[in-house]
Amino acid sequence: MAILECRALTKHYGGAPALDGVDLSIEPGGIVGLLGPNGSGKTTLLKLANGLLTPDGGEILIDGRAPSVETKRIVSYLPERTYFSDWMRVEQLLDLFSDFYADFDRAAAEDMLARMGLEPKQRIKEMSKGMREKMQLILVMSRRAKLYLLDEPIGGVDPATRDYILHTIISNYNPEAAVVISTHLIADVENVLDEVIFLNTGRVVLRSTVDAIRSEQGKSVDAVFREVFRCSENY
Amino acid sequence: MLGKLLKQDFRATARVMLPVCLIALILAAFTRGCAALTKSAAATAPWRLQNADFLSFVTNVLGVLFVISLIAVLVLAFILMVWRFYRSFLTDEGYLMFTLPVTTAKLVLSKLIVALVWFVVSIAVVVLSCVIVGADSRVIEVFYNVEGSAPWSGGQLRAVLLSIFAFALIHETTFCLQCYASMAIGQSHRRQKELMSVVFFFVFYIAIQILSSIGLLTIMGMNPGVYVEKLVTPDAVYRFVQTILWSFAGVSALIAVIFYGITHRMLKRKLNLQ
Amino acid sequence: MQWHIRSDAPVYAQLVEHITLAIITGEFSPGARLPSVRELAADAGVNPNTMQRAFAELERDGLVQTQRTAGRTVTDDAARIERAKQRLAAASIEAFWEAMRRLGYDRDAALALLKNREGN
What we know:
Chain A is an alpha/beta fold.
């Protein structure tokens, strides 16, 4: 059964539709790239999957169910923003995740945090932005969830951090789970993706595997993306 | 899950409230101590006026600080109630809160319970501090005499005190939920979220005022003079007071439920995290 | 191991090539145990599914085999490795002929150019 499914999914923001009749389904075991320019509806789709927004039309299903408390148990979400309280310490954050998520692998998280050089007693407000982002990723990837939704995980980070993030995603790969990476930085993540879905002004314009695109078109996905979106209004 | 949420909310608020409460109590103790010292200094060595004057000055300063700390405790309890809700649900932290596998109801309830607990604690601290500063044998005597000399029995007095306490609690609940509902509506707007929260708070305030006036006029219209004339015995007065308190509490509770409904619906269906 | 994955060719094909090369040069010695798919994928910065696909092809070619107890190992069939080496060499030569032809040298001219270079 598809772990994430959208049927004629529609969401309006004021006048313009952020998502306009999106149909897609993602099976477990893949790392899928949700690619599109800013404003194409990627973040809206992820928010809908998390129950942070309600659809205006159509439906979105996680493991066959509408977003609810049950689906939140199996979805691990990395938003674009860091979402911690400043005053918390690392170990308190680990407590929080352990408390609320049965699938949280505390040992794995502690190991990764230690390798990053973070002490359990450290306060979040003492950390740099880059460290907070890495920490948030570690916590999200330490959950043994069925669906990982990562919104711009490598946006605005230096190349070393980017490599670290991609490495973390690959190392935590689980064939029974699906990972959806939403980004507009395609060249950096192409090699990690199985499939890509291009989204533009709320519609799916292309869906294929990375290798298929490369063998059929002899170009990188990044190059194809630039072609597909060259004549759009977003420029 | 509610327990876990409460744990998080208490952790976040206690780190601010507990120190302030402690300071208030400590200041109360010091004020009392200094006042006593001043008294004994003036009594034992009246010729050492400087000491007495100096101690008197310190006592006054402590007294002022003490009063400020009491105000701080009460004001802080209120600010925390609003701030905690705002921080958890209307800022980036919302991304964490609303993706936790808990129902919206539990999220709101947790904030409300913690706010109420600090409300009670803050009042207790104020009362306790005042007792520390001002209680002596005379006051306690007066307190006991009241119970003996009043027309009501001890049981009735206690019942009325309990009713007042319950009423205060319900009223505070309604007030909290009024703040929450305003913020919940405010956040659903695309722009000027904070401004809209304040606007709706006043809208609710005015609405309640209007309803209260209508209610009062209705009661006046029903010629209450007839009933008041019958209040001759202490028992009748007691029953009257209790009825008033519990009717008001009932109305307040109803309004609280409405505000809760608004808060819940807004956060569940019209969530608008940026 | 250095992985240079080009962006305009399918990833799995490049992985097959890289690993084959590593086997030929002895970086992965014959009979040696190979790291897990996930480890190699993390090392190369690629999707584990793609690495898995590359291994499936290598197994089809017989350069790699999976044993129940030992996991994935490089073949110790020296002849196989030699054949793979020759295949890659042939492909390089073909690429050379093609590059020369694009420059306008036919086979004989290209061969003469080579001999001259070797002579000097």
